[in-house]
Design goal:
Low-confidence stretches: none
Distance between the termini: 57 Å
Structural class: alpha/beta
Oligomer: single chain
Number of strands: 14
Helix content: 55-70%
CATH class of the largest domain: Mainly Alpha
CATH architecture of the largest domain: Orthogonal Bundle
Bound molecules: adenosine-5'-diphosphate, magnesium ion
Strand content: 5-15%
Largest sheet: 6 strands, mixed
Number of domains: 2
Strand order of the largest sheet: 10-11-12-7-13-14
Shape: elongated
Length: 584
């Protein structure tokens, strides 16, 4: 889609309601579709993109609606001031509710938000202040320049214009530094944390953002309806919004609009037709919806939007930009990493047992050993992904033990993963740019308002440079998970280089590479060594390891068997017995 679609879309919002002969009934329907779509865009960000299932979105709609209703009726405040109030109330409520529920994962989070939704429903329904089950009526309409927007046509223009702005803001957010953090939550949170993303904060932000969109929808709803009562803010309503997102396509913002259109129109038609067909009244449309949902999930599990509009990855234009500042590299040979009697127990299993070794600046150290020796676990202990049972990890003499992964990343430790952890559905270059997360500062608001463009240009210029360095410049705009597994490992190396590391930990980087690709990788690692980077390398390809490394540390069953030059280790009887012998 063109970058300029919002302008014609805004024009259409202004004109469509005035189409001659547009039945009033469609006007009403379009109002509700627009309001629902605004809320469902939030569901897309939170659930489809951020991977958090919430059944409390209608409650935030309620917060928005009641906030403006109470202020404009009880306190006579202008309905326009109700908007910031609605947003503030919902954002604070979401902040508090999120702080409690977002610790939960998966189904537990869904259940937790259901409990919240039910409690809030009874809060709305039982407080005298909120008018109990009758709610609040006599809410004033919106006025603009003395013109009352009570006319359905003007209000429809307003609702759809807000929807267009919400879509633009959301697309801006998703295409920003913070947006990449949110997009990494589903499937890539561990890797993102290893590159400095504050994943709990990103989850909280997505939750608050979705609640704010719901509050805006609630404000529009209150002044359209001119009265509020608890029913539209209950659990059933939240389920219906989830249905819209799932049917339309929870992974894309466009899916929110499509889902809102489909569910609202079909619901309306069914309520019309089913009683005629069946000859009696009842909530039969719910059954039909259940069947439709089953059919869609069977045939188009991602929802209808990606089915109808096959997503082409946009080609990102990399503009020349000022290079990012770099770390001061330590003197070659000076100590960088010290691992001291590090141990990790998993129940009865000792995965890492009192391991000690060091890596200096401008040195490549190989960490080798048979499968299950404890190499990857050691990486996790060094990078803060797992906490050691005992022992210490020091970087430039400072203890890293107990620090979260993002803090360790901040100090210049970057890694790749044995089991590739790229964000699925994100392009290669965006994945690489996550590595530069800590070299930018732009927050969510800067992203939404597009004030981050200069910084983004620098981050992406850096990502492009690192991608070119590993020989994958041609693949920049492809979906990362469409690449061969060997190439995905190389993408991980580019991502790690974007952190401007002092210490680089690579877990089986050459697995799945062809011979000449391995030669190029070895050349790259030699160049990094020459720049003063300290490299710790886990690799099974012995030719690769023996030719490249300055020293080897050999592990077996969690313990260190030997340490020394390739030559010395090769001759060590214990090593021959445990490892090289087994391989031959
Ligand atoms: P390597 O990378 O050398 O092949 P790992 O570090 O992956 O070995 O694993 C070392 C041992 O620890 C293995 O026996 C593995 O099964 C066990 N292990 C690794 N991670 C966990 C975990 N999260 N929980 C339980 N056991 C684990
Ligand atoms: Mg491993």
């Amino acid at each position: 889609m063109s970058r300029y679609w919002p302008l014609p879309a805004l024009a259409a919002c202004a004109l469509v309601p005035w189409l001659p002969g547009l039945p009033v009934f469609w006007l009403t329907l379009l109002n509700y579709i627009g309001i629902s779509a605004i809320l469902v865009v939030g569901v897309v960000v939170l659930t489809g993109i951020g991977g958090m299932t919430s059944f409390a979105q209608a409650s935030f709609l309620g917060f928005g609606a009641y906030a403006s209703a109470v202020l404009s009726t009880h306190y006579g405040l202008s309905p326009w001031l109700g908007l910031p109030a609605a947003i503030a109330v919902s954002a604070v409520a979401a902040g508090l509710i999120g702080a409690v529920t977002l610790r939960l994962r998966g189904h537990y989070l869904a259940l937790g938000t259901m409990a919240v939704a039910m409690s809030l429903y009874y809060l709305f329904a039982n407080l005298d202040f909120f008018g109990r089950n009758d709610g609040i009526s006599g809410i004033p309409p919106l006025n603009l320049f003395g013109l009352s927007l009570v006319d359905g046509r003007l209000y429809l223009t307003l609702i759809w214009a807000v929807l267009v702005l919400v879509i633009v803001a959301t697309n801006n957010l998703l295409d920003s530094r913070v947006g990449r953090a949110i997009r990494s939550l589903r499937g890539g949170a561990l890797a993102a944390a290893s590159f400095g993303v504050n994943t709990p904060a990103a989850r909280q932000l997505a939750f608050v953002y979705a609640a704010v969109l719901a509050a805006i929808a609630g404000w529009l709803y209150a002044h359209l309806q001119r009265s509020v009562n608890p029913t539209p803010f209950g659990l059933n309503a939240s389920i219906e919004y989830m249905l819209m997102a799932v049917l339309g396509g929870a992974g894309q913002v466009g899916g929110a609009v499509l889902g809102a259109v489909l569910v609202t129109v079909i619901n309306d038609q069914l309520q019309d037709w089913l009683p005629r067909l069946l000859g009696q009244r009842g909530n039969y449309e719910s059954i039909v919806f259940g069947l439709i949902l089953l059919a869609v999930l069977q045939t188009a599990p991602e929802g209808l939007w990606p089915h109808l509009f096959r997503g082409r990855t946009r080609k990102r234009v990399i503009a020349p930009a000022e290079a990012l500042p770099r770390r001061v590299m330590p003197q070659a040979g000076s100590p960088v990493l010290a691992v001291e009697r590090l141990s990790k127990r998993f129940g009865g299993l000792i995965a890492v047992n009192e391991i000690s070794f060091a890596v200096n600046a401008g040195e490549i150290v190989g960490l080798i050993g048979p499968n299950g020796a404890g190499k990857s676990t050691s990486f996790n202990l060094i990078t803060g992904v797992a906490d050691p049972s005992s022992g210490a990890v020091r970087l430039f003499g400072t203890a890293l033990t107990g620090q979260p992964a993002r803090e360790i990343a901040q100090r210049g430790v970057a890694r790749s993963f044995q089991h590739v952890k790229l964000v699925p559905g994100m392009s290669v270059i965006e994945n690489v740019a996550i590595g530069a997360h800590l070299r930018g500062q732009a927050g969510a608001l800067a992203g939404v308002l597009r004030l981050d463009r200069a910084e983004e240009a620098r981050l992406f210029a850096e990502a492009a440079r690192q991608l070119a360095r590993v020989g994958l410049a041609e693949q920049a705009d492809r979906k990362a998970t469409d690449l061969a597994l060997g190439q995905q490992r190389v993408v991980e190396i580019a991502r790690a280089l974007c952190l401007d590391p002092v210490l680089l930990l690579l877990d089986e980087p050459a697995a799945g590479l062809r011979h000449n690709e391995k030669v190029e990788l070895a050349a790259l690692l030699r160049r990094l060594r020459a720049e003063g980077v300290a490299v710790l390398l886990v690799e099974h390809d012995m030719d690769f390891v023996m030719n490249l490394t300055d020293r080897l540390v050999v592990m077996d069953f969690g313990t260190k068997l030997a340490e020394g030059t390739a030559e010395a280790v090769r001759r060590d009887p214990a090593v021959i017995e445990a490892y090289l012998g087994a391989a031959q």
